[in-house]
Amino acid sequence: MSFNLSQTEAIGHGTGPMLVLAGPGSGKTLVITERTKNLIVNQGVDPSRILVITFTKAAATEMKERFFRLMGGKRYPVTFGTFHAVFFSILKHAYGFRADNIIKEEQRFALMREIITRMHLEYEDENEFIGDILGEIGLVKNSGIPLEHYYSKNCGKEIFEQIYQSYEGQMRQKRLIDFDDMLVYCYELFTQRKDILAAWQKKFQYILIDEFQDINKIQFDIVKMLAEPENNLFIVGDDDQSIYRFRGAKPEIMLGFEKAYPQAKRILLDVNYRSGKEIVETSLRLISHNEARFEKSIHAHRKSTQGVSYQMYESPLEESRAIIRTILEGCEKGKSYNDFAVLFRTNTQPRILMEQMMTYNIPFRTRDNIPNLYEHWITRDILTYIRLAMGGRERRDILQIMNRPKRYITRESVDDEVIAFDAWAEYFYEKKQPWVAERIEQLEADLRVISRISPYAAINYIRHTIGYEEYLKEYADYRRISEDSLIEVLDELQDASREFKIYGAWFDHMDAYTEELKEQKRQQEMMTDCVSLATLHSSKGLEYPIVFLLDVNEEIMPYKKAVLDADLQEERRMFYVGITRAKEALYVNSVKKYNGKEVEPSRFVEEMAEKKMEEE
């Protein structure tokens, strides 16, 4: 096999630290496996002294199999594994941990549910809250932030500290560890037991790390200790593809590698073997707008492809239909569904596209869990109002919305399975609380209005006249979360209801979509030829002949929560990842209206189209 000059230099590297900047499609897996072979065959290194670390189990398995094939099928005792797998094997030797000491995901959720119930915390979407809190606990551990200096995004500071300490206490009591503990315990072990550290340093004399841009502080601190004293640390990655800051990944670690190791050599793998020339040049124009990065001159190996096209559409519906037309035309010309991928910033974006694909019988596979808008708790509230407007009087429906917004109605007043509004109001008149009775009468009057109008008008009425939107703002404030994400659900639901004139037709559509979605999920595993739908995050590491980037608009891409410069740089890196998934053709789409509101094209559209202006 022939290698280009930079690949040859990286593969032949001997001792000491080396930083390999591996742009998209530049053959980083090839370089890691070939260098591992080179260490054994040409430099006489004992294979059991070599450690290759990746970020995912799938990547570790692929790397290992590729290496064994390279070695003619002989299974050399090189250690391939994720950070967690490697650190857990160290803890197994030190503390006698076994696989059953690792807490399962459902156990973590159950433990956290127990804690928040005991603390009498109530949240609309309990699973979402628990997931967010567990994510924050992981962030605290991975970043090495002292708990007293951390401010939660999901609840008050003191509440978060209580939850954290309860969680940690219960874990220790049950002798359980989670994935983040594997890092914390390993760091503490190496810091406190120099004899154990020395034994592992002797064991792993050559360390190769893939996707180094995704490393977090505690992982790097452990690796630095492990690599001493020889510092045979061979790191491969692309700072321009660092997109996991929310998990604690720090691109600054890669950018500062040469400060930590002044003797480190640096190599740029400067040939992109994946994408056509126009796609590569477009990606470089975009990413050059980021300040904190390694400058790179990358050229494409493939010269002629369809390239990059940009299109503006009136609405997501028009955009979705255009994507479907392009896919169907491509398939008529000999392409398969597998050749196409649609990428997006958030997992709520593809609903309209999915509805249209179902209509046109186009098979698709989602790489992420795409939430069903019609099962969101906000949608359930709105539908409950409408059910009551259509004559429903069930106790559970009344309980769900009677204090959304706050009407100060007590649960004791609702004790029958079916509620009569006049008797309900009378209950409060008798209790000398006429103001509550009047609110019940107002609710009944509101329901009469809702019964006579279209779904779109009904949502508008519930939001603004009844005051449901105000309730959401108060809830967001209580939860310490962004009210925008809640209002967005209302916007999307209202926009989705626009084409339906009567409730029955809208309900039928929701039921059919929900059923079809379940059917799609059931069939996904069996599908061999289908269009891929993925968020930018989950598309990393993948490649497709033809890629569509959905809704490239301000507040979507870059996302509206990206306010600080560091956030915007991360959004730009995400967009760069999206562009560089495409091999032959890239379609960048913007819309004029999103959820019924006018939106601007993303600043990234201009950045990728023009050369960066030189500063005067």
* Radius of gyration, in angstroms, nearest whole number: 28 Å
Q: What is the typical, i.e. mean, pLDDT? A: 92
* Total strands: 16
Class by helix and strand content?
A: alpha/beta
Q: For the terminal residues, how far apart are their CA atoms? A: 47 Å
- Shape call: globular
Question: Largest sheet at a glance?
Answer: 6 strands, parallel
Runs with pLDDT <50, length 5+? 612-616
Strand order across the largest sheet? 3-2-4-5-1-6
Classify the helix fraction into a percent range.
40-55%
The portion of residues forming beta strands comes to 5-15%
Main attributes of the structure:
alpha/beta; 616 residues
Could you characterize the architecture of this molecule?
With 616 residues, the protein is α/β, with parallel strands linked by helices. Helix content is 51%, strand content 13%. The strands form four sheets. Strands 3-2-4-5-1-6 form a six-stranded parallel β-sheet. A six-stranded parallel β-sheet has the order 9-14-13-10-12-11. Strand 7, helix 13 (277-287) and strand 8 (299-302) form a beta-alpha-beta unit. It is globular and about 90 Å long. The two termini are 47 Å apart.
